[in-house]
């Protein structure tokens, strides 16, 4: 790896042989040809022999030789496997100075965590390999300058460049999938992931997305001198899914940034709708179903998610584990109590998360077990039940409570902000999106 580093070093070598240091600039350069008069004394004194053209080759006087100080500037791109020590040594920096700069005064020790692709710019005096200055270019936005002080130690200063943050508007109609159509529209994948996370409590992205669904959003993009350096957060979005419109706004209510509905309700809810990702529903909640094994009328009290054996199962909400173990036809089963009369049940599991026990507290989204087909099951699937005060509810349609609401004071400040952001978002709508949104808004008589 060092060999590769040295190779890159050779390629990106920027050499400025500056004559300076302790020798003043008007001193004669060593090894230069100077014209001298042909007198024996001067010839003897300088120990030279004349060349054909009457010039004399002059050897560097000893006192100049000892003080020869070339400051050389080199730039190197860190390669995989490089360490600060190997890189600086390959540039000829003395071991003592490698140690000193690595332990720079008030060290943030970032220099010890150099990453491939980052750059070091080094100014050093040779032949001693005496480090004068080192610039560690971490990114386009951050560099740290280490400078040698009179006592030989290094001080450093961090230089940050602030990118310009722009708002980007995009609108997508889904014909394939959120990710395929979103990326085609030029939306970075990280933004699309954010989008699915924000709406995860309202939309089951594994099963709810239909051709013709559409979304619009405003998100941040960071630029430096016209170059896109990355994307920031989604500022606001409107997702039209199966004739329903879900709108969200990012807001700092004093503690941290969160996403809220235009009315100020948290997007986060007490439960996620489906405890498994990337599945299809193989059997819906149906109070009058004929049982597939017993062929008798037996209500289906939950939702079945067909998924491969071993697919992770997540806790739908935070709560206390009530039961872990076998439960007749349910096979391996977990029951979680969430408080206020809510409970969820996960059946036919292949196995449980190691260490999961009754009375343990868990968070929403925690891994609890794996899809299987234990108990009375015709194939691998998760049977998921949702109960309120012991009564079975359809997990797909049950009204799920929002997470902790905003304080009244925050809400007062939030509402005018939300209105202005949604107005801004809507000003970008295409005619088609605007009309679609209007039809839904009228039907639901919402503000926006
Ligand atoms: Zn079932």
TrEMBL record:
Domain LysM: 74-122
GO biological process, one term: proteolysis
GO cellular component, one term: cell envelope
UniProt KW keywords: Hydrolase, Metal-binding, Metalloprotease, Protease, Zinc
One Gene Ontology term of the molecular function aspect: peptidoglycan binding
Gene3D superfamilies given in the database record: 3.10.450.350, Glucose Permease (Domain IIA)
Pfam family, one: Csd3_N2
Superkingdom: Bacteria
PANTHER family per record: CELL DIVISION PROTEIN YTFB (PTHR21666:SF288), PEPTIDASE-RELATED (PTHR21666)
Entry protein name: Peptidase M23
């Amino acid at each position: 790896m060092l060999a590769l580093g040295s190779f890159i070093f050779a390629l990106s070598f920027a050499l400025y042989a500056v004559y300076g240091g302790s020798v003043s600039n008007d001193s004669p350069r060593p090894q230069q040809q100077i014209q001298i008069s042909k007198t024996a004394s001067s010839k003897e004194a300088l120990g030279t022999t004349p060349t054909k053209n009457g010039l004399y080759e002059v050897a560097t006087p000893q006192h100049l030789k000892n003080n020869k100080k070339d400051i050389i500037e080199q730039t190197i791109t860190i390669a995989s496997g490089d360490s600060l020590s190997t890189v600086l040594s390959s540039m000829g920096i003395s071991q003592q100075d490698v140690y000193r700069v690595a332990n720079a005064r008030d060290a943030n020790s970032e220099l010890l965590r150099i990453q491939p692709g980052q750059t070091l710019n080094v100014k050093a005096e040779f032949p001693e390999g005496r480090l004068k200055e080192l610039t560690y270019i971490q990114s386009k936005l951050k560099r740290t300058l280490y400078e040698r002080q009179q006592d030989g130690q290094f001080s450093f200063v961090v230089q940050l460049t602030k990118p310009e943050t722009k708002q980007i508007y995009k609108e997508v109609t889904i014909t394939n999938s959120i990710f395929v159509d979103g990326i085609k529209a030029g939306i970075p994948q990280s933004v699309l992931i954010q989008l699915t996370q924000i709406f995860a409590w309202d939309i089951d992205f594994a099963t709810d997305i239909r051709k013709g669904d559409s979304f619009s959003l405003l998100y941040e993009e960071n630029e430096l001198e016209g170059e896109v350096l990355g994307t920031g957060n989604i500022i606001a979005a409107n997702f039209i899914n199966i004739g329903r419109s879900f709108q969200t706004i990012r807001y700092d209510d004093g503690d941290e940034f969160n996403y809220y509905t235009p009315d100020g309700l948290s997007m986060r809810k007490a439960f996620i709708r489906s405890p498994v990702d990337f599945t299809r529903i193989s059997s819906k909640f149906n109070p009058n179903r004929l049982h597939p094994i017993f062929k008798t009328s037996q209500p289906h009290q939950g939702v079945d998610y067909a998924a491969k054996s071993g697919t992770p199962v997540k806790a739908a909400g935070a709560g206390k584990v009530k039961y872990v173990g076998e439960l007749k036809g349910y096979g391996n089963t977990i029951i979680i109590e969430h408080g206020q009369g809510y409970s969820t049940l996960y059946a036919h599991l292949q196995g449980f998360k190691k260490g999961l026990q009754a009375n343990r507290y868990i968070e929403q989204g925690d891994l609890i077990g794996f899809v299987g087909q234990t108990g009375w099951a015709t194939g691998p699937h998760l049977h998921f039940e949702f109960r309120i005060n012991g009564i079975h509810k359809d997990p797909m349609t049950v009204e799920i409570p929002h997470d902790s609401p905003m304080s009244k004071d925050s809400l007062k400040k939030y509402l005018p902000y939300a209105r202005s952001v949604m107005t801004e978002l809507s000003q970008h709508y295409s005619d088609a999106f605007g009309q679609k949104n209007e039809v839904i808004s009228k039907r639901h008589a919402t503000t926006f």
